[in-house]
Write a structure and sequence with these properties.
heterodimer; A: 343 residues; alpha/beta; Rossmann fold; 6-stranded parallel beta sheet; 15 helices; globular; B: 363 residues; Isopropylmalate Dehydrogenase; 2 domains; 3-stranded antiparallel beta sheet; 13 helices; 14 strands; 44% helix
């Protein structure tokens, strides 16, 4: 299999984190590695991705640098190997009076992604994972379109300007943009719907961005794209069944949702169902009585979903216009978070 | 070795290695109702977010998926079963069902009959719903005719949960009834009140034109005699219309003809009272102030009489459960109807009715 770069956000994408309340925020900061909980299926999926030795896994998180030790320990406990874990210098931002930077995600993540791509200098395929809590969909899509040469340098600098990035950083970004080799390398962007944001809101980013409700759905898409094998997909299913108590109904419904949304096509789904059937039928791991039969009933029903709804072809995104909307949303979220904390 | 362990309202299968939830599945006619599919799908979306109920939305896949895309929902608890036919609210039930063999209500009922879902919910054309159930479901042995039951808020509260509603049946499924039908309605109503309202000894009465034993039609008199002899039902005799809102009985038994008139009249009275309040609010400043001071009580009254909270009317008498939501149902009423259906399934309502009917000897 070809080399793929997987870039993951941590909080709410890989880790179950609640930072909407002061209690949750405090807990996330004080929690030991052993106490931290992963989103069901996320560790299993990462373990399957790292089975290809050529693949590289990068984490980029808005958590403060002070949490490095505990986060690294958590990843080790989960059996994850990573190439780089980037954390946010929140204390430094605070001391330098960059209060805006404390909550700014676009101005934080975009330069890191671009710089890393430039450093690597290769045109390897990239798959990105984020969530719907902040601006991951926006940052990842913008990053992907910059790499693809679809966004002008002036536009990027305008956005960076909006983000109140220090002038030294701006110069650096400008220089990165000048040296960047354009390559349409980002093949998929997965947005884990922790807040169950309606999927319609992500359609403007095109079919490259896939909102997912669980990691079974991510695994299905990766399997459809031949980025993981059907055996890997089966192992992820078993992990979800054993560790997160996923039922045949939940698995079947999740699969159907992807087909109905036009993310996985009928021909792909038939191949995947056959693969799962074959792998599970080997019965290496004993499943509860009736589980296999029930799962097959639900999966067989997938082929009856005939009216696949195709997502509109990728239209250029107006990132400047969208920024103000994203920014408004972010400000509103932060405001409501502060309100909740003060309540 | 597989063990079945009941935890709360759901069941888990446990072996040495795996546990998973067995979900209650509701087949939902997504195309039925004045506000379908948009508002009724929204109700199902709410359900998917905060319950363990699995809902199969039966109807136009594209329309349903397009609606879901706009809503917060959890697709892990939702699926769509496609059919492009449906019965309109104004259509003649019999003709429509004959012309549309794949109508959403029919397909949803078939899913329940075939064991793919545990209960059926629809806000669609009432006639078509009842006819579908009659054609698709099997009657519980011993029951001749089905009854549509409805709840009505009363002065008195009852049961473990301090339930403010009494049950009236039949409200329209069976126009002409025999004494045996009335008895079976009483048994079914009593089972429903004990399982759903958690009322261990519901008071059952026949709605008549007087409380005396000798009042009523011939079939009512005979039903009175039969119920009086049956000790497993807490039969309190006849009641009059005035007793319904008082809550003298927890289960009110009548023919579908009478029940439908009573129900519509009660709904009309509620609407008129609210209309009068609105009129008074506009008419005089002093009345406006008076109503303003009473607003807490008015809101409470509105809350109790709000049909959207009832969760729909069960059609009783079949081996499968059907909950009829109001035709004007929006998201709130729809989600409550789904919740009631799931509660009835988990509470073993059909099994309770079957065993109660078996106990009663009509001879």
């Amino acid at each position: 299999m070809k080399q793929v770069i997987y870039r993951w956000d941590l909080d709410k994408t890989y880790l179950k984190t609640e930072f909407e309340t002061l209690k949750g925020l405090w807990r996330a900061f004080l929690e030991k590695a052993e106490e931290k909980k992963s989103v069901p299926g996320a560790p299993a999926l990462l373990k399957e991705l790292q089975k290809n030795e050529d693949n590289e896994i990068y984490f980029i998180s808005g958590s403060p640098l002070q949490m490095r030790k505990v986060l690294e320990k958590k990843l080790i406990i989960d059996g994850i190997r990573w190439k780089e874990l980037t954390l946010k210098p929140n204390l430094q931002n605070l001391l330098l009076g960059r209060f805006h930077a404390l909550r700014e995600q676009i101005g934080y993540k975009l330069p890191i992604l671009l710089e890393d791509n430039l450093k690597r200098g290769q045109g390897s395929e990239e798959v990105l994972f984020g969530d719907d809590a902040e601006s991951d969909a926006y940052v990842y899509s913008l990053y992907a379109d910059i790499l693809a040469g679809m966004v002008k340098k002036e536009t990027v600098l305008k956005i960076i300007e909006f983000c109140h990035v220090p002038s030294s950083h701006k110069k650096k970004i400008s220089s990165i943009l000048d040296r960047l080799k354009h390559n349409d390398v980002v093949s998929k962007i997965f947005i884990y719907l922790d807040k169950k944001t309606p999927t319609r809101r992500f359609e403007l980013y095109g079919s490259r961005l896939v909102p997912i409700y669980n990691y079974f759905q991510a695994a299905l898409v990766l399997s459809a794209e031949n980025l993981i094998t059907l055996t890997s997909l089966t192992r992820i299913i078993l992990d979800l069944v054993f560790e997160a108590h996923y039922s045949p109904v939940v698995l079947g419904n999740s699969f159907q949702d992807l087909v109905r949304r036009g993310v996985v096509h009928n021909s792909q789904s038939i191949r995947i169902v056959e693969g799962i059937k074959q792998n599970l039928n080997e019965k290496i791991i004993p499943l509860p009585e009736g589980f296999y039969e029930k799962l097959m009933t639900h999966l067989d029903g997938i082929k009856d979903i005939k009216k696949t709804i195709a997502i509109d072809s990728l239209k250029p995104v107006d990132y400047v216009k969208l920024y103000s909307e994203e920014h408004r949303k972010e400000t509103k979220q932060k405001k409501s978070m502060i309100d909740r904390i003060l309540q | 070795m597989v063990n079945r362990i009941a935890i709360g309202e759901c069941c888990l299968f446990k072996t040495n290695i795996v546990i998973y939830k067995i979900m209650t599945t509701i087949a939902f006619d997504a195309m039925g109702g004045d506000f379908a599919p948009g508002d009724v799908v929204r109700g199902a979306a709410w359900i998917s977010l905060d319950t363990d109920i699995n809902v199969i939305l039966v109807g136009d896949e594209k329309k349903i998926t397009d609606t879901l895309k706009e809503l917060k929902h959890n697709p892990e608890n939702l699926s769509v079963y496609h059919t492009n036919q449906f019965v309109g609210m104004d259509e003649h039930p019999k003709e429509a069902l004959e012309k549309k063999p794949k109508a959403s209500i029919l397909v949803a009922a078939q899913l329940v009959r075939d064991g793919k879902a545990d209960a059926l919910v629809s806000a669609g054309n009432t006639g078509a719903c009842i006819l579908t159930c009659a054609r698709t479901f099997t009657k519980i042995p011993g029951i001749q005719k089905a009854a549509l039951a409805s709840v009505y808020p009363t002065e008195i509260r009852r049961g473990e949960k301090n339930d403010p509603f009494s049950l009236i049946l039949d409200v329209g499924a069976t126009v002409n009834v025999t004494a045996k039908d009335l008895v079976s309605f009483a048994i079914m109503g009593s089972s429903y009140a004990s399982r759903i309202s958690k009322n261990s000894k519901p008071r059952v009465a026949i709605l008549s034109n007087g409380t005396e034993e000798i009042k009523g039609s011939a079939e009512m008199l005979e039903a009175y005699k039969l119920l009086k002899q049956y000790s497993k039902i807490n039969f309190i005799g006849n009641i009059e219309g005035i007793d319904i809102p008082k809550g003298t009985a927890d289960v009110v038994v009548c023919s579908g003809f009478t029940g439908n008139i009573v129900l519509k009249m009660l709904e009309g009275v509620s609407e008129t009272v609210m209309g009068l309040a609105r009129y008074a609010y506009k008419k005089k400043f002093a009345w406006k102030i008076g109503l303003f001071m009473l607003k807490g009580a008015i809101y409470q009254l509105k809350g109790i009489t709000d049909w959207e909270q009832y969760g729909g009317a069960p059609l009783l008498g079949f081996e499968n459960l059907f909950i009829k939501a109001h035709g004007r149902s929006k998201a709130k009423a729809t989600s409550n109807a789904i919740k009631v259906a799931a509660k009835a399934v988990r509470g073993g309502l059909i099994q309770e009715i079957s065993s109660s009917i078996k106990d009663f000897s009509f001879d």
